[in-house]
Amino acid sequence: MKAVILLSGGLDSSTAAAIAKDRGYELYAITFDYGQRHRKEIEAALAVGKALGVKDHVVISFDLRKWGGSALTDDIEVPTDHDVCDLGEEIPVTYVPARNTIFLSFALGYTETIGADTIFIGANQIDYSGYPDCREEYLRAFETMANLATKAGVEGTMRFKIEAPLIKMTKAEIIKTGVVLGLDYSLTWSCYKGEDKPCGQCDSCKLRLAAFEAAGLTDPVEYA
Amino acid sequence: MKAVILLSGGLDSSTAAAIAKDRGYELYAITFDYGQRHRKEIEAALAVGKALGVKDHVVISFDLRKWGGSALTDDIEVPTDHDVCDLGEEIPVTYVPARNTIFLSFALGYTETIGADTIFIGANQIDYSGYPDCREEYLRAFETMANLATKAGVEGTMRFKIEAPLIKMTKAEIIKTGVVLGLDYSLTWSCYKGEDKPCGQCDSCKLRLAAFEAAGLTDPVEYA
pTM for the complete prediction? Predict the structure, then answer.
């Protein structure tokens, strides 16, 4: 039983991968190098994949900086002064147009090629409800489209499914789940900046630290 | 009035671009370099874009050979022995899993970034009905997904539309339309092989030659 997992190297996708493995799937990981600032994520994704014993791991490279539009890929300063609780109220400045759609499209091609029907994604609409492409409604629309887009879907040999096991979990629940499954969070990377050690100051680091605190656990990652 | 046009450099996408221009759109072209054999297509796309006076032209590079699965990107021999009329009966060997979905996803990101709402694609379900991702039903499902995926779609500032003006045209009608609009078909490239001149023997060249014949016109391209 094969599944493709979108693995960014962050908390969420790494936990989703651990859940997929726990459900008995043979994992095929896909990671994207899209000109983001935090290339550390890619190293983290490969390390997490290795630790989870993925059957294969493809890294797809492309350059989203070609048209800019987000703090993650162009020269806009990554914001650090928001209170964590503000996240989810509006669409964050770190929104990248069509990012998950591009990622899922590649994952769909990979899934059909290896003869699988399931894609795992670490999308979560509790702490990140501001991202339109992290919502259940979006994922179901993608699924419908995917079954019309593909040879296997149209011929009826496959019914493609998007599994988003974290969709309604809080960050604390996500971390507790990963810890129970034996996931080593020291391998993961959340910081929006690409320094040697995570900054502990950006929105993503703050959210991560708050999540470990809410889970009553200590983040095993060493901060700058 | 801006529109993004998926421009491969072939007959269909070039004609769709000419139609978009004729409808008064300012064109933003997007072309993909995805490890296909016929890189000549990319040069053709740039030439067609220039001739049509595109406002901008982005070339997105990525490598679909990472997981193979199609004659267009791996070492499977490109078939040349099918009768042209067989096309459309079944899904061709040149099918690439999720190709149009990947292309449209990038186009969606580009469209949202430039503040446009319209994507033109040269999809055609008459001569190529074998490709699942060239059908009207698929394109509408993509559109639905796109409006749930994006900030502009969710906030209601945009309603993304996929325009496929060729969807129900025959190849002959497509060529006649392009000629009326002044499109120079000598700039386009259809051959599946990447030689200096088109081979005239592969399925794509045969289909092109048959289309010009059906239109009562001579293909301005010089064959090997």
Answer: 0.90
